[in-house]
Every structure is written in structure tokens, then in C-alpha cells.
Amino acid sequence: MCTCNPKIRSFYCGVGNCRPKGNFIDDLRIVINQYSIENDSNTPDFILAEYLNSCLDSFASAIQKREQWVSKDKNQIDEHLQKI
Ligand SMILES: [Zn+2]
User: From ligand 1's centre to the CA of 21, what distance in Å?
Assistant: First the structure.
């Protein structure tokens, strides 16, 4: 747990090397079990953990595609303005 920020003791603050050393999906499984989230959908922890991780991957992919689209759109506008 975080030892660099006295206000934070229950989780890692993410600054510098203050990060968990484990595996993200395994840690998601631990949290899912701690809160008995499996019971809500009668779904095993590993399936829920992989699903949540894939949601984050999909989000990152969508953001990247949006940035590419915005950048492409901006380039087309710039090209159009140069022709005027
Ligand atoms: Zn910390």
C-alpha cells in the first residue's frame, strides 16, 4: 500500500514507483471477491475480471480511434484552407 502519501493508506497513489507489483486481472478478481460482486450476476470472478479489463481495452481503442479521426478531420480542414 501507499507509503509516500500520508493521506492515502489503503491503496497505491500511482506516483512514481508507488504501484502494485501484481497482475491487474488477478487484482480485479480479488476486489470482485472482497465485495462479493459475483453474486449479482452469478458469474465467476475470472470472467468478470476479464470482462472489465476488456472494457478498458475497448475504451482505450475508441479514444485512440477518435483522436485519429479528429486529427484526420483537422488535416482535411487545414488542406481546404490552404487552397482558398
Ligand atoms: Zn504512494
Answer: 13
pLDDT, tens digit (0-9, with 9 covering 90-100), for 16-41: 888 888 899 999 999 999 999 999 99
| Dist. CA 33 → ligand 1 center (Å) | 24
Instruction: With H, G, I as helix, E, B as strand and everything else as coil, classify residue 24.
Output: helix
Instruction: Decide: helix, strand or coil at residue 21.
Output: coil
The two counts, helices (H) then strands (E), for the chain are: 3, 0
Residues in the chain: 84
Q: Which of 19, 44, 14 is nearest to 32 (CA)?
A: 44
Instruction: State the distance from the centre of ligand 1 to the C-alpha of 26, rounded, in angstroms.
Output: 21
Tell me the average pLDDT across 32-56: 97
